[in-house]
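Bug report

Summary: structure tokens for Molybdate-anion transporter differ between web form and batch submission.
Environment: batch mode, default settings.
Steps: 1) Submit the sequence below via batch. 2) Compare with the web form result.

Sequence submitted:
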Amino acid sequence: METFYLVVFAVQLLAVAALEFRRGSKDRIVATSAFNAFKNNYLVVYSLMMAGDWLQGPYVYFLYSHYGFQKGDIGRLFIAGFGSSMLFGTIVGSLADKYGRKRASITYCITYILSCFTKHSPQFQVLMVGRILGGIATSLLFSAFESWLVAEHFKRGFEEQWLSMTFSKAIFLGNGLVAILSGLVANSLVGSLNLGPVAPFDAASCVLAIGMAVIMFTWAENYGDPTESKTLLTQFKVAGSAIASDEKIALLGAIQSLFEGSMYTFVFLWTPALSPNDQEIPHGFIFATFMLASMFGSSLTSKLMARGRVEGYMQIVFLVSAAALFLPVLVGFMTESAGEATDSISTSGRIQMLGFCVFEACVGIFWPSIMKMRSQYIPEESRSTIMNFFRIPLNIFVCVVLYNVSAFPITFMFGMCSIFLVMAAVLQNRLMVVSEKDKAKTKPVEAWPEKEHETEAEPLNV
């Protein structure tokens, strides 16, 4: 393995360690033992669920290439996944409010395990079924678990500030440490042990089965508002009405779609961007490096939350993200692609990888921040339904991009993502303005010393 990869990984590891070790006792929130037990149980489950997803991540594109599929066919497989998430996933995810978030979480495990099994077949149709199942699972992953956590947190009477602590810790572990370990394990299974590109998917199935067992025996069931969720159509109407009547919810959905759409496009493009001439690159190790950058971002989030409003600093995060994904465009203009394949990453590839690490750090900040805003603005009775509604424009956006992936150069795709991230920053500014106006309308006249009660003024324990 090239020294470049090791240096980038080591620098980021030192940065994360420095952030964590600088936390003193004054930075820690004192919580009850009951909350700590609840939080730790959720973190175990969430980490296992994310491990099941992250183990597959580095080798999805590579597996399809291994089976002999070209970029156009691979794009269609990805489109099937996002299209499934948009159509079937929205319905299945929304049913979580009516039939229970615990059941939805178990359904996620079963669906994703079946999706992993399909990876053993090189047949396009079988792989297509696997992508459809994976799309449904993805919708459940990003709605059912968070909805269960928020409902159960307040049901048990825990303080609102502690919810942010759980979010930050979950992203630090599930989207950081677990993702890094998953990438390294996947790289070892395929590279060191020579078990083939399907091995990470088998490992993911085992991890998901363990997580499902923990959910079945330790989680209580919770629902949305039973009076508003008698039918699926009612759920859709309530969710649609909430989005249409509250500008903050609509803005939040647009922001999420723009950022996640750019993020998922990046997931599809980073492999060909770093190896345009089919250079041999350590996919699993690069993936782990990206996740370490995300871990750095999530570790930084608690400090950002302690020093200002989420709606404020996220504007800067979106602009930095836009600059990071615009880097391949600049590199494309300044360098000419070599006509021959080499055995190592090119200079332009190294520059892009550094920019991608910056983007992943922004992703690490985004997740706990968007979770915090969703917990503030989305009503509990339709939480899962609204969160899945947010994913409809996201999936349409990604499907359109992937459908045209062969028609445009990679630099065009990255440039488009940069534009959408700038738009997200503009909408984030609008969300801050609207939320401040609403607060001013509802703020009591005698409440000028309210600063004492600002929960975000205290650092979080992550």
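Above is the batch result. After comparison, the two runs are identical; trailing whitespace caused the diff. The longest helix spans residues 160-192. The two ends are 33 Å apart (CA to CA).
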